[in-house]
Amino acid sequence: MTGDEADEPRPRRALPPEDDDSDADTAEQPRVVPERRETAQDRPEPQHAAWPEDEPAEAAEPEPESAVDVRGGRDEDEDDEKQLTFGQHVLVFFKELAIVVVGAIVVAALLRAFVGQMFLIPSESMLNTLHVDDRVVAEKITGLTRGQVVVFADPGGWLSGPEAPERGPFGKALEFIGVLPESGTDHLIKRLIGLPGDRVRCCSADGRIEVNGKPLDETEYLYTDSSGRKADPSDINFDVVVPAGRIFVLGDNRANSRDSRCHLGDERAGMVKGENAFVSTDLVVGRGIAVVWPFGNLRALAIPSTFSDVPAGSPPPNKPTIDAGPDANC
């Protein structure tokens, strides 16, 4: 090879033509937009799950109340209570006590007036059914029935025993409201034998008292002495018809009882002879239902079975019919 040939530049190899797509790709590239920061207005609102229509929504639980305030102090009511003086505590106590006592007195007075009343037995006229110093409750709701033990005010002249000692003002107040039994001597207690229209007589062929023709078996309640001997039904003979609005009564201890038999000969102004022997139903306070004191005598006062089949009486007359001997006074 010669020198000239060495200096002569060699021809360059032709490069393959570039792909036209590169220009296209370069032309189609998107512009880059600067990124903008997200603001609160761009954020979507939170979506709450819908509550099923067929199920009730649960109520929000209330926050528990605290007895201590935010300052760490005690409950205000407790503070007020602590601030009460000893004298104020005593005043509150007696105020509440007075309310209780007055309420009890009102209730007792209403019960005494409309329901029942307690009585003290002063005599032996109802032995062995009732004893001296027994406390008997008389109720005022039910009507009168043969065989009942009844309490009634003195019709006039029936009471002749010594007067009971008079109670003081406090005792009278307790008696009035029914806490203590009625101690006065203006009431009596006997057994009801005849109702208005009943014919009551003594005695039958076998010595018993008859009501509307039915002899009474009084062994259940007549007085029995310590030897076991029963009292006689009556040592006074009589045959009476009870007038309207009146009742005929006898004591269970017949030999020691001033009852209807003992007044068949009474003569009083404005009355026929013997009319005072029949107790007006207006004077009846109630029927004895139970002995409540002393506990040793505690029992109910039931109606004896012998009165269960007594026939009904006749229409009562306005005035009594009385056939009694000269001994019709006790």
UniProtKB/TrEMBL annotation:
<comment type="similarity">
    <text>Belongs to the peptidase S26 family.</text>
</comment>
<dbReference type="InterPro" id="IPR019758">
    <property type="entry name" value="Pept_S26A_signal_pept_1_CS"/>
</dbReference>
<dbReference type="GO" id="GO:0005886">
    <property type="term" value="C:plasma membrane"/>
</dbReference>
<keyword id="KW-0378">Hydrolase</keyword>
<feature type="transmembrane region" description="Helical">
    <location>
        <begin position="97"/>
        <end position="120"/>
    </location>
</feature>
<dbReference type="Pfam" id="PF10502">
    <property type="entry name" value="Peptidase_S26"/>
</dbReference>
<keyword id="KW-1133">Transmembrane helix</keyword>
<feature type="compositionally biased region" description="Acidic residues">
    <location>
        <begin position="17"/>
        <end position="26"/>
    </location>
</feature>
<dbReference type="GO" id="GO:0004252">
    <property type="term" value="F:serine-type endopeptidase activity"/>
</dbReference>
<feature type="active site">
    <location>
        <position position="190"/>
    </location>
</feature>
<protein>
    <recommendedName>
        <fullName>Signal peptidase I</fullName>
        <ecNumber>3.4.21.89</ecNumber>
    </recommendedName>
</protein>
<keyword id="KW-0812">Transmembrane</keyword>
<dbReference type="GO" id="GO:0006465">
    <property type="term" value="P:signal peptide processing"/>
</dbReference>
<dbReference type="GO" id="GO:0009003">
    <property type="term" value="F:signal peptidase activity"/>
</dbReference>
<feature type="region of interest" description="Disordered">
    <location>
        <begin position="1"/>
        <end position="81"/>
    </location>
</feature>
<keyword id="KW-0472">Membrane</keyword>
<keyword id="KW-0645">Protease</keyword>
<feature type="active site">
    <location>
        <position position="125"/>
    </location>
</feature>
<feature type="region of interest" description="Disordered">
    <location>
        <begin position="307"/>
        <end position="330"/>
    </location>
</feature>
<feature type="compositionally biased region" description="Acidic residues">
    <location>
        <begin position="52"/>
        <end position="66"/>
    </location>
</feature>
<dbReference type="InterPro" id="IPR000223">
    <property type="entry name" value="Pept_S26A_signal_pept_1"/>
</dbReference>
<dbReference type="InterPro" id="IPR036286">
    <property type="entry name" value="LexA/Signal_pep-like_sf"/>
</dbReference>
<dbReference type="InterPro" id="IPR019533">
    <property type="entry name" value="Peptidase_S26"/>
</dbReference>
<feature type="domain" description="Peptidase S26">
    <location>
        <begin position="96"/>
        <end position="293"/>
    </location>
</feature>
<feature type="compositionally biased region" description="Basic and acidic residues">
    <location>
        <begin position="33"/>
        <end position="46"/>
    </location>
</feature>
